[in-house]
Amino acid sequence: MSNILNINNYEYTVNDDMLEMSLLKYLREILHLTGTKNGCEKGLCGTCTVIIDNKATKACRTPLKRVINKNIITIEGIAFSNGKLHPIQQAFVDCGAIQCGFCTPGMVLASYALLINNDNPTREEAAKALRGNLCRCTGYQQIIDAVLESPKIAKKMKVSLKAGCLQ
Ligand code: FES
Ligand code: FES
Question: What domains can be seen in the chain, in order of their start residue?
């Protein structure tokens, strides 16, 4: 039986001898999807966050064998094909929630996992959803502002928060 992964709506077949490899390594080194960042490789920083079956998941602690036949979304999968930013990405820009940008893909995807289930979160709910994601430079106020702003931007853009390659 083949080992199929669905990543950003494309199917990939993984050989049996690669099943112990982490999803982070596979994304970055095999598929060259380097938007998923490697901050610690220990499950501590959240820079490697991706969406697996609608849940925010740390790719560094996820072996490929655990994601066979699952739907995976990386940061490359949420922008529009015409290059337009996803409303959450736009909110991060508008709220000044990015400095060096290293934590940003993970922050955006952790926010995405929250917002596709709850498009009107409180500040506390947003902070809770991002508690596994560390930022060493921007500060969390602007990042949480961006999460709360995202549904308004989606409305203005007339797109769903689930927008992107999966739509
Ligand atoms: S690289 Fe995965 S949590 Fe830090
Ligand atoms: S923007 Fe630099 S680590 Fe968050």
Answer: 4-77 (3.10.20.30), 87-160 (1.10.150.120)
Name residues contacting ligand 2 (CB within 6 A): 98-104, 135-138
Question: Alpha carbon of 97 to those of 1, 12, 55: distances in Å?
Answer: 44, 33, 22
Ligand 2 atom 2, closest CA:
100
Residues in CB range of 104: below 8 A, 6 or more apart: 92, 97, 98
Closest atom of ligand 2 to CA, residue 99: 1
**Per-residue 3-state assignment (H helix, E strand, C coil) for 12-23:** EEECHHHCCCEH
Distance 58 CA to ligand 1 centre (A): 6
- Are 67 and 151 within 8 A, CB to CB? no
* Tokens at 130, concatenated: 């991002």
Which ligand 2 atom is the nearest neighbour of the CA of 97? 1
Per-residue pLDDT of the chain (167 residues; tens, 9 = 90+): 799 999 999 999 999 999 999 999 999 999 999 999 999 999 999 999 999 999 999 999 999 999 999 999 999 999 887 888 999 999 999 999 999 999 999 999 999 999 999 999 999 999 999 999 999 998 899 999 999 999 999 999 999 898 765 55
